[in-house]
Each structure stands twice: as structure tokens, then as C-alpha cells.
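Case study: Flavodoxin-like domain-containing protein.
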Amino acid sequence: MGAACSRPADAAQAPELVTTAPPAHSNAGVPRAAPTAVPATSGVNARPAALAGEATPAPPAGNASNDERVVEAAAPVAPVVPHSPPRIAIIYYSTYGHIRLLALAVQAGVESAGGKADLLQCAETLPDGVLAKMGAPPKSDDPIVTTDVLAGYDGFLFGLPGRFGMFPAQFKTFWDSTGSLWTKGRLIGKPYGTFFSTGQQGGGQETLGLATVPQMAHHGMMYVPLGYQDPRVFSNSEVHGCSPYGAGTIAGGDGSRMPSELELGVACTQGASFARTAALLAAA
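Here is what the predicted structure looks like once written out:
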């Protein structure tokens, strides 16, 4: 997978969305009146004359009232520049590897936007004997996430396989151990997003995202969904697990279906978009 997010050919058939900010309004060449004292106008839609480009005489000295205000010339807004590349923790749990494949695509997206992303997996809680009966393959070599590293990240992306419409116990077990971070408010204001894997369409992709909100709200974290900024989320050309809540895949009841190119592409888009949002928040 390349560093940049690519779109499949059929994406051009999906409804196009405006994904870039509109050009800044330019007043070049338009004379602007000098700042003057302007009487307050009435009505919520009324504009002071000076803002409309009309010259307004200053009131007589010493006669200013509480109904008068000073309108200052608007200063240009400087662009927000992050102090450093945002650090994103991609925290996931994966039994059969579907979520990890999505996590790799999300990581590529973060890095394509100039961010840094680490893959961290939740510790397994099922006994080895149970995993063997489930036919689960060996775990990856990605580090196990611990509470002491979270405060050093600017944002988080959670990879969640569905368990009866909810996130897995392994994920909740980890977050139930973050009380020390909660008491110190170490995660307040940090953004997070979600991506998913379920057995079939309607298997709980949207409820998975919503289920994270109560616990993360107690940490003061902000949910940043994907939305429809990638037109492939609209696609009806094939079965896929993506939604406005995040990228996703449909694993099938037996886990035999792996993430498609469409699903991996949307995951890459989500990583890039989230990295840009995290950078703006980190620089604020």
C-alpha cells in the first residue's frame, strides 16, 4: 500500500462532495474606511455602516453614549500551523486480522498527511484454549497498549470488531484501567475516531461508534467521525462496511471475507483526515 490514499475507478460515479475549504474572500483593491466610532444599529441583521464600506462621521467629542461602539478594522487571520507532526495512537483489537488490515490502511493515511501513527493492540483476555477452538491465528508483534503512554498522543483511532453490536470486552477492559488518567484530566480535549469490522451489513457498525461516546465523554475526549468526505462511502456497487461513523469491513459469518480495496481506501482517507484535525487541535 502506498503512502498516499488512492481511489478506485468507480469512485468517480459516486456523488462528489466539496472536501476543500472555499477560497478566502479577498478585498484587494476595495477601499476601506478608517475605523471610526459608529452608533449601534438595531436588529439582528443590521450592519454598521463602516462594515458596509460607507464613511461614517465620528460623533462629537464628549458626547459618546453607551449606544455607541468602536468598529475596528478586521485583521487577517493567520493560518494554524501545528508545532510538530501530530502523534496518533491506533488502538485496536483483532481476532482474525480484519481490523489490523484496516489499521494498517489508517496508519498509511495518517502518515500521508504528515502525522506519525503507532499501532497498539489491546491485550487478549481469552484463554489460549478458547482461541484455539475459535481458529484464531497468532497475534501480531504490535505492542500491547498501556495507560502510561496515552497522554503523549495528540489523538486516537480505535479499531473495533463488533460483538453483538458492541465493542469487544478486551477494549473495555483496557479503558476500565484508565482511572489514573481520568483523575488528572490527562485526556481532556483530545480527539478520537473509530473504524470497525462486523459479520454482515447491519451488524452494528454505527452502534459500535456510538457505544464509545459515554466512556470517552468521561475523559473529556471529542468524537471525530469520518462523515461523507470520501465519496466511496456512498457506493452501492459492492458490499462494504464503511459509514459516516468510520471506515469498516464486512468479515462474513465465518470471517472468510477480508477488507476490500474500497474499504481499505476509505480507511486511508479517514487516517489522513483525522491527522489533519488532530494537528489543528494540537496547535490551538
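For the exam, be able to explain this: The CA atoms of residues 95 and 138 lie 9 Å apart.
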